[in-house]
Amino acid sequence: MCISENLKKINSELPEHVTLVAVSKTKPVEALQEAYNVGQRIFGENKIQEMESKWREMPKDIQWHMIGHVQRNKVKFMAPFVSLIHAVDSFKLLKEINKEALKNERTIECLLQIKIAEEESKFGMNKEEATNLLTSEEFKKLKNIKVVGLMGMATFTDNKAQVLGEFQKLKEIYDALKIQNPLFRILSTGMSGDYALAIKNGSTMVRVGSAIFGERNYI
Ligand SMILES: *Cc1c(COP(=O)(O)O)cnc(C)c1O
What we know:
By secondary structure, the chain is of the alpha/beta class. It has helices at residues 3-13, 29-37, 48-57, 75-78, 91-103, 127-135, 137-140, 160-180, 195-200, 210-213, and strands spanning 19-23, 42-45, 63-66, 84-88, 108-114, 145-152, 186-188, 205-208.
């Protein structure tokens, strides 16, 4: 199957309120262009420099989402153009994004990453840390960022019950935090292997890579 057919199939499965992020990490711009040509405008990358070089090459009406772990010293490279940063996992990082957004006279939308998976390797905050961040006075002073929701990654496992439990837990946290945070509108969860289950459990944004572009050779 080719990229345009994959996209068509996935789009036909997505309810209207769910946004598709085409995860194009490691793929050449030709592959992204093929998706662009059939209407895809949101692309997700997990390396800032790779995203920046694709941004330079590709049409300017693309929305670029940073879905990977972010190092603070690299925020400046994406601040001029990034449209959503999915994996904010500390207040320090949020402050750095605010600083660079201000330099660029922009407001950058962010999601807080919540750790729902068992794996030690996964990043993210717990509910208490996210709550503390969102209610702190220091947070309210940051005028050039908007936290518009949460992001989570389920454990990489065939155990559907476990993945379901993790999605449910994330949805619970999302619903609880949304009450105090009227800007919340995005719950980013679900990838190629689990997006259907994620959508059933409240996802409003899925990040799909290999089901669109085919398997990656690395990462
Ligand atoms: C790579 C990646 C995805 C997409 O994974 P697929 O299984 O290829 O759909 C989604 N989210 C994050 C954070 C990723 O790094």
